[in-house]
Amino acid sequence: MASWSQFAADEPRLADEIRRLMQQYGPGFGYLATVRADGGPRVHPVSPVITDEGLFCFVIDSPKRRDLERDGRYALHSFPPEESDDEAYVAGHARPVTDRARVARVAEIGRAAPQVDWRLFEFTVDVAMLTRREHAALPAEALGRPAVQVWLDPGASGAIRRGAGGPEGRRGRHGFDTRRPAA
Q: Is residue 36 a contact partner of residue 16, using CB atoms and an 8 Å limit?
């Protein structure tokens, strides 16, 4: 499980593009998928905070917080930009941040209200994906396949690595899928 910082050090351009999509409207904005107790998905809008220290999210007392406390698996997807269908996606595991100094630093950056019952979670990155599409104003027949970049945590389990990219994917340095455009 790589931290956002480890991912960003490994693939800085990809991390920067994902950060731009997540923060395209100023503060972070995306959709967080968690795993309900019955195994089903749950999706909520959230405001992720991306810093040099990591990828974080303040989560109020809610079903999604209980999901993360029980089963830390998550997926985070960017909100679609107005001018394109580009998208960013990261998935991994969420873990509560208990270090008070770190919580205070991220709360200041994320402008988290101290009087609200929230808990700070750090999201590790097992998979990061960026999809870029041609401009939506072009006629459908002029549009090509989207360009997809996928990063897989080199330390992730074999099941995660086999499940993303498939055997036909070409792996560059550090597990980065070098295919352009998507197959």
A: no
Structural tokens at position 54? 């990591």
3-state helix, strand, coil in the chain (%, to 5): 25, 30, 40
Query: What residue type is assigned to position 15 of the chain?
Result: A
Structure tokens at 152: 């897989």
Which token pair is 24?
Answer: 């395209």
Sign of the alpha-carbon torsion through 39, 41, 42, 48: positive
Structural contact between residues 32 and 65, judged by C-beta atoms closer than 8 angstroms: no
The H or E element spanning position 8 is: helix 4-10
| Tens digit of each residue's pLDDT (9 = 90 or more) over 18-70 | 999 999 988 789 999 999 999 999 999 999 999 989 999 999 999 999 999 99
Q: What is the value of pTM for the model shown?
A: 0.80
Q: Which residues contact 91 (CB under 8 A, 6 or more apart)?
A: 73, 74, 75, 76, 125, 126, 127
